[in-house]
């Protein structure tokens, strides 16, 4: 049986402090990010790709690769792939998706579910992935002047709804738990007919809050 970290355990706080450390560096040095983006962006890209290799390499070499948990269908893993593509292409269309979907990584920090210890390869993968996922939108703001439009949240919720419906029907076929629709982290006894629409609604409300946060930050750093 896997041994996972628990809410507000020592290792949970270690993860949080690592995130805070990199966040402080990013925001304190925000005016220098654009100047050094020519080497910062490739560095972040290499680390992100290395994290993916560590993640799937661990699954492969430990014999724990399963269709139900190891595919790149968790929302955080999809966001990582989008982030890698963004770092390569600087595609502004991807930026809102990366930002809004990073909100689910915040939820992972607030309510860790099936997260390994920091000494475990998957624990290292988790913290690496989430530091990049959570801070990449703000790096993009400083390095490439990426801005959020008020209409962007509608595109994000549209594609999220498509994703949720897809994994909802896929999960029973592969014994999966993508988007945590099977082993629900909150209100586990809620019927799917209520839980699935509620998940999308809560996600939309989260997007609204994230929008306000980012637009507020835009005013601070662009005025």
Automatic annotation (TrEMBL):
Keywords: Membrane, Transmembrane, Transmembrane helix. Pfam families: TMEM164. The keyword Transmembrane helix applies. InterPro entries: CHP02206_TP0381 (IPR011737). The chain crosses the membrane at residues 12-30, 39-59, 71-89, 94-111, 123-142, 154-174, 194-217. NCBIfam families: intg_mem_TP0381 (TIGR02206). This is TIGR02206 family membrane protein. It comes from Fundicoccus culcitae.
């Amino acid at each position: 049986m896997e041994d996972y970290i628990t809410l507000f355990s020592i290792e949970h706080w270690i993860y949080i402090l690592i995130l805070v450390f990199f966040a402080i560096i990013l925001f304190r040095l925000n005016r220098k990010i654009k100047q050094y983006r020519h080497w910062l962006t490739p560095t972040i890209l290499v680390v992100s790709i290395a994290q993916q290799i560590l993640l799937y390499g661990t699954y492969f070499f430990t014999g724990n690769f399963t269709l139900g948990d190891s595919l790149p269908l968790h929302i955080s893993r999809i966001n990582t792939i989008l982030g890698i593509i963004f770092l390569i292409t600087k595609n502004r269309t991807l930026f809102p998706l990366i930002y809004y979907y990073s909100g689910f990584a915040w939820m992972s920090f607030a309510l860790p579910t099936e997260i390994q210890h920091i000494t475990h390869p998957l624990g290292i993968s988790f913290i690496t992935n989430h530091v990049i996922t959570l801070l990449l939108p703000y790096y993009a703001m400083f390095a490439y002047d990426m801005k959020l439009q008020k209409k962007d949240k509608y595109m994000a919720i549209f594609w999220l709804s498509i994703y949720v419906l897809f994994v909802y029907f896929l999960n029973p076929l592969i014994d999966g738990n993508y988007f945590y629709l099977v082993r629900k982290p909150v209100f586990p006894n809620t019927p799917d007919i209520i839980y699935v629409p509620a998940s999308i609604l809560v996600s939309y409300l989260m997007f609204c809050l994230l929008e306000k946060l980012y637009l507020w930050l835009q005013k601070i750093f662009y005025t």
